[in-house]
Amino acid sequence: MEDLETRELRYFVAVAEELHFGRAAERLGMAQPPLSRAIHRLEHRLGARLFDRNRRGVALTEAGRVLLREATTALDAVAAAARRTRRAGNPAQPLVLATKAGASHELLQRLLDTVAAEPDIPPVEVLLCEVGEQAGLLRGGHADAALMHRPFDDLAGFDTEDLHIEGQVAILPAAHPFAVRDRLTLAEVRDVPDLPIARWPRLDGSYPDGPGPEVRTQSKLAQLVALGKTLLVIPASSRAWQWPEHVAVPVVDAPEVTTVIAWPPNSRSPAVAALVRSAAVLGEAAMPQAR
Fold this sequence. Notes:
Elements: H1 6-18, H2 21-28, H3 32-46, E1 51-54, E2 57-60, H4 62-88, E3 95-100, H5 105-116, E4 124-129, H6 134-139, E5 145-150, E6 159-166, E7 168-173, H7 186-190, H8 218-226, E8 232-235, E9 246-251, E10 257-263, H9 270-290
Parallel strand pairs: 3-4, 3-5
Antiparallel strand pairs: 1-2, 5-10, 6-10, 7-8, 7-9
Helix pairs in contact: 1-2, 1-4, 5-9
């Protein structure tokens, strides 16, 4: 069997996501008949039906669901290869470091100061993102490296260097009775009937069950805490974004969080290697203080 072409995969993904040949054709900027023929040829070559078609519409078969996962990964890898190649062809282009907005602020500032003093490292452009987005930015070639957090972030497939270990704090409304406490436990934090814990999305995008509000952005979360609608437990260094209406209280039995610098395992960039070395030196200095 011949190898699949990226054009075929793009056609298939458009139909799989739209579940409608007309909308997929419009999205691709082509007529519907050649798109339908292309999908039929793809099914014939693979020896598998990818879609169930009937008067009620279009649905993916099990084979189609498998190909959708694989095709999305393959197309992302092709796009990432193009982005990394373009950057490699321009050595003066800044390194892109992805990090969650508000996280590890002090460490990030020290790393940027260190890199600025190193003549063999290009300027670093910080790409701020929301919770859990660093992995996608790395895999898609939008970032050269990322600051991430174990056990919360998706580190699968990346090379990593541990930089910092820290405890966690509860961010509470300043007017809440718990705000005057000098410490809390996880059991206490989870048992506040008038202040449910905010729910962040899991790695697969779904939310855990619970009464707390679903949040995805720091700005939404900050306002909900200030309004007395929720609380959250986060790494202590992430409190850099807290508002005057917030109070941070240590949660003494919360799991420790490790900040890491992550990068693609196939990276051969001397600039990325130099950035990682600088981060590792900072990590060695910070690690004993964090324990």
